[in-house]
Amino acid sequence: MLRQFFKLLPLWALIVPAVKHIFTIATLILAFTFTTQAQQQSSLQFSGFGRLIAGVSQYDNTYVQEYDSHATIKNNSLIALQADWQIASNLALTSQIVGYLNDNKKSGLEWLYLNYQANATTRIKLGQLRTPFFNYSDVLDVGYAYPWIVPPSEVYASYFFSHYDGINVIHSVDYDDASAVLEAYAGTFNGPIVQDNRISDVELDYIAGFSVQTTFDNLTMRAAINIGKLNHSQPRFQPSFAELREYFEPVQLGSLIDDVELKGSYTFSQLGFSYDRLDYFIKGEWTHYKHDLVLIPTSTSYYLTLGYQYNDFLFHITQANLKDSLKLMTNTISTAQQYAMVRAIYQELIDLRVSGQRHSVTVGTRWDFAANMALKADVSRISYRTDTPVPATNDTVLMVGFEWVF
Q1: If you average pLDDT over residues 192-212, what whole number do you get?
Q2: Taking residues 137-157, what's their average pLDDT?
């Protein structure tokens, strides 16, 4: 039965985009049709959030983190507007538009989905949704919702795409002293991702996942498993695999490009917890990412955060770690002159791979100086040890920010 289910997953590539376009048209019509009077009747409600973040690093190591020695507000600053239309008592339409200052992030529609409340314990969402990889996936852009200026990048890596097109089912269960939330999703993704500050265009046949989150008193725990099949990935910083194949096939080495092409399956596992006593908290997440590709690394990562609340001030410290691992890739192409070009190209593919171990310690503070507004400051010390030609380095990053919701 499971095999039949996964065979059907690629159908989302045909069904969901059509549904999304219908939702887009519907949202535009609603934006122009509903009057102020309708808004006052609460059938259509608007909300939003924003963040203004400035950052600077000690050195120019942009393959380790996104800042350099020149201060900038572009990398993480944004503003967003969300519209919620209650179509019926159990049916709502939600859309969210986000505008980024970062040129590597695509501004525009982030959420667009129907939310159907099937009963008191089950919800079904259909459309463009947030990918539920992490504890903070739903609020990834809402800096006001978490203690740091940005979540630890060792875990919240930028190449884990933030949204997908598909379906999501959430079921809640309540016990006497505990509760649980079961979540399952399936869909597709087609768009750009950023890894090591380099952009790639990605298309997946399908993605799917399941998670369980339980809460008992002050302790919340979450476990998730995600799978997907990568149909196409083309780094913008190198020629296409089709172009590379044109060099290799004339010398009967086209199979080498087939072996390194970014196609295949992946599995992403996550464990998270939060123990919160209002005046202090302990939070953490662990992830493991594995696949059958040779040009990009598998990874294991975690973070642990301690926080203390004193009146309107929050003080926190976070330790995070990321360990990459690349599959063995050896250049066995003949050194004969006729193979010189393809050997050099293949060696460059090997050299472009980046992997290593990254460790960081972040200390920060947050001041909730007014309702729905906060000022933050974080300092991170990063140590990066590499297994590839990219040099090892240490760096320090300072970020300050203004967060708000409305």
Answers
A1: 88
A2: 95
Nearest to 93 by CA among 166, 147, 150, 43: 43
Domain parsing of the chain, residue ranges: 2-405
Share of the chain above pLDDT 90, in %: 71
| C-alpha closest to that of 186 among 2, 15, 9 | 9
Give the side-chain half-sphere CA count within 13 A for 382. 29
What are 81-94's pLDDT values in tens digits?
A: 999 999 999 999 99
| Cα 259 to Cα 153: distance, rounded to the nearest angstrom | 30
Query: Could you report how far apart the first and last alpha carbons of the chain are, in Å?
Result: 46
Cβ count within 10 A of residue 147: 22
| C-alpha torsion sign, points 235, 241, 247, 251 | positive
Q: What 3-state DSSP class applies to 190?
A: strand
CATH class of 2-405: mainly beta
Residues 6 or more apart whose Cβ sits within 8 Å of residue 142:
49, 405
Q: pLDDT tens, 318-377? A: 999 999 999 999 999 999 999 999 999 999 999 888 888 999 999 999 999 999 999 999
CA distance 349 to 4: 37
Q: How far apart are CA 298 and CA 325, in angstroms?
A: 5
- Please tell me the distance from the alpha carbon of residue 332 to that of residue 310, in angstroms, as a whole number: 61
